[in-house]
Specification:
Blueprint (H helix, E strand, L loop, with lengths): L4 H4 L4 H13 L5 H8 L3 H12 L21 H12 L4 H10 L6 H10 L10 H4 L24 E4 L8 H7 L1 H8 L9 H13 L15 H6 L8 H9 L3 H17 L7 E10 L9 E4 L4 E13 L5 E8 L7 H12 L6 E3 L7 H9 L3 E5 L4 H8 L5 E2 L13 E7 L8 E7 L7 E5 L6 H9 L2 H12 L28 H21 L8 H9 L3 E6 L2 E6 L5 H5 L9 E2 L5 E7 L1
Parallel strand pairs: 2-6, 6-7, 13-15
Antiparallel strand pairs: 1-12, 2-4, 3-4, 4-5, 7-11, 8-9, 9-10, 10-11, 12-13, 14-15
Helix pairs in contact: 2-3, 2-4, 3-4, 6-7, 9-10, 10-14, 11-20, 14-20
């Protein structure tokens, strides 16, 4: 006699799936509860829901239960299947070959025959092992230095030929001198300069993750830009990044900043400072939670400090893996770094109220550094500001500013933890409901300049947003403090040390800025715009003796590239022993 157990404990597989879906859709039970009730896993319940919603499961005619009739396989077919497997062909490939001879059997049947004949399953094979690469592509066993003499007369179709536009600027920066000054390590096969150029190649192309280097694995043109036959594999690049300690990265930044400053690309009078949290979605307990302004919440990640030249909007310093109790000290660390690389330059630091404490502001003042920041305001402070008299209206000469005529009230005040007096400027009528309380130790600068310099602090926020959007600052790195290799096993794909990745972002951002300055009408464009219009696209790379010629096909912006005075720039490819570079635009 049948009872409710027929529905609660179904015997047939099709009915068990039916009841599981009914409980999931009609009773709206969680996947975990449905899985426990019917003996499935939660993942399989989600798979059933997906298949049912997309019409891949049909219960109109239930599948008959019992032993299915097997396709009879003759001894001749069995012999042919055995012979093909001995040649390392998969079950799918054997099925196709049989189908070409008019024998229609399923992959399941072939797999059954192979199991009966005692053949184990083939290991999962890559596209390279299967032979599905581009026809005629030479696939080297490993990445290594390339010799122009061996490439004489060869031509390559390069999918990312736009990276060669940055070669003259890398030569202008003397990237080889930077690598030498930073004492970056190399390997027996790949020197340090070629490793750095390999990383920069992916950065300049806007590659989202270093694990995606396989997308460029068969492009000899990109390898040639780095001075190699092909770019290194993602595991090799990950291992290299974790071999760099903080001393290497700090020296790399110092050497790079010195070269850029020698070219006069920095103004250095006003420097914006801001924090950014590179989010991490793993479960590593060693990571702290930090405030992520873009997401409006505190989240686990690597806290990173950015310093930006306010006039040129170039990033000129980074520090990462900062702990909460170290955050307020970072402004003093940057001051020490800046005085080491730019002796005699006295900039003004601009940052918000959360970057440091009043006691550290006092130390900045004692060290002779100027600062502009906000005072932390409360309700009492706002109420007192409403009772003040003697407001005066000023003009801030910024283009496209929506509120160029705010009112200000100026005074000298004391702060708890700060030795001496600070200059306070209360600003209202600037588009915000509550007034802003600016504080500074600069008593001589015009108030319009003081307010205007702080108002332009949004430039560093835009710079960080560009680094996240185009240089994929939040996606590329494993934000694990110290770069301990034991954590690498926790990830499906190799990662890159976060501080090294941020430093590469700074270098790539500078290279895009150097390119923009040479493009008439595009001097103020950001990296995504330049990439879409000039860098992205294919090109023809030809090698003849010691000259590398890159020819770009017809594009709408080629006339602007032809106007660039390339003859006044170093026409060299740094990774190839300063081989001569010729750029042609059809």
């Amino acid at each position: 006699m049948r009872d409710t157990s027929f529905f609660t404990h179904p015997e047939n597989d099709w009915q068990r799936r039916y009841e599981a879906l009914r409980a999931s859709f009609v009773e709206r039970l969680p996947a975990r509860i449905v899985a426990d009730r019917f003996g499935y896993s939660p993942g399989y319940i989600r798979l059933l829901r997906h298949q049912f919603q997309h019409g891949k499961i049909d219960f109109s005619e239930p599948v008959p239960e019992g032993k299915a009739a097997r396709r009879r396989v003759t001894s001749e077919i069995r012999r042919r299947i055995r012979a093909w497997r001995e040649r390392r062909l998969s079950a799918g490939e054997i099925t196709v070959l049989l189908s070409e001879d008019g024998i229609e059997i399923s992959v399941r049947t072939v797999e059954r025959v192979l199991a009966e004949e005692g053949f184990p399953k083939l290991p999962r094979r890559t596209r390279l092992k299967v032979g599905l690469t581009v026809n005629g592509a030479e696939v080297p066993e490993r990445s290594q230095l390339v010799s122009l003499s061996k490439l004489n007369g060869k031509r390559f179709d390069c999918a990312g030929a736009g990276v060669f536009l940055f070669a003259p600027f890398l030569a202008q920066l003397d990237v080889e001198k930077i690598v030498t000054a930073a004492s970056l390590p190399g390997s027996k096969v790949i020197p340090a300069i070629n490793y750095l150029l390999s990383f920069l190649t992916l950065k300049l192309l806007g590659t989202e993750r270093y694990a995606h280097v396989a997308d460029h694995a068969f492009d000899p043109g990109l390898g040639l830009f780095a001075g190699l036959n092909v770019l290194p594999k993602c595991t090799a690049m990950s291992t290299y990044s974790y071999s760099l300690d903080e001393v290497h990265i700090l020296r790399l930044q110092q050497a790079f900043i010195n070269q850029v400053a020698n070219l006069g690309l920095y103004d250095g009078s006003i420097i914006n400072l801001d924090f950014h949290t590179a989010p991490h979605y793993g479960d590593e307990s060693v990571l702290e939670k930090h405030w992520a302004g873009a997401r409006g919440k505190a989240m686990k990640g690597a806290l990173t400090l950015f310093a930006q030249d306010a006039a040129t909007k170039l990033i000129l310093y980074t520090a990462t893996d900062i702990k909460r109790d170290e955050a307020s000290d970072q402004v003093l660390s940057f001051l020490s770094f800046w005085r080491h690389v730019r002796r005699g330059v006295k900039p003004t630091f601009v940052f918000d109220s959360r970057l440091t404490t009043y006691s550290h502001l006092s130390e900045l003042n004692t060290a002779g550094a100027k600062f502009i920041t906000l005072r932390r305001r409360g309700e009492k402070l706002v109420d007192k500001a409403g009772e003040l008299t003697g407001w005066q209206r000023i003009h801030i000469p910024h283009e496209k500013r929506k509120y160029p005529h705010p009112e200000i009230h100026e005074s000298a005040i004391t702060l708890r933890g700060y030795e001496g007096m600070v200059r306070q400027v209360i600003v209202r009528g600037n588009g915000h409901e509550k007034p802003a309380f600016l504080i500074s130790n600069d008593f001589t600068a015009p108030v319009e300049l003081l307010v205007g310099n702080y108002a332009r602090r949004w430039r560093i926020e835009n710079g960080i947003a560009e680094a996240v959007k185009f240089f994929h600052l939040n996606a590329l790195s494993s934000p694990i403090p110290g770069g301990c290799s034991k954590f690498l096993s926790c990830y499906c794909t190799p990662q890159v040390k976060v501080h090294f990745d941020v430093t590469l972002t700074m270098i790539a951002d500078t290279l895009y800025s150097m390119l923009a300055r040479k493009l008439r009408g595009f001097e103020c464009c950001d990296a995504p715009k330049l990439y879409r219009d000039f860098v992205r696209g294919r090109g023809d790379v030809a090698v003849r003796k010691d000259t590398v010629t890159v020819t770009y096909p017809r594009r709408v912006h080629n006339p602007i590239l032809r106007q660039v005075p390339w003859q006044h720039l170093p026409q060299q490819v740094p990774g190839l022993g300063r081989a001569k570079l010729v750029l042609r635009f059809r």
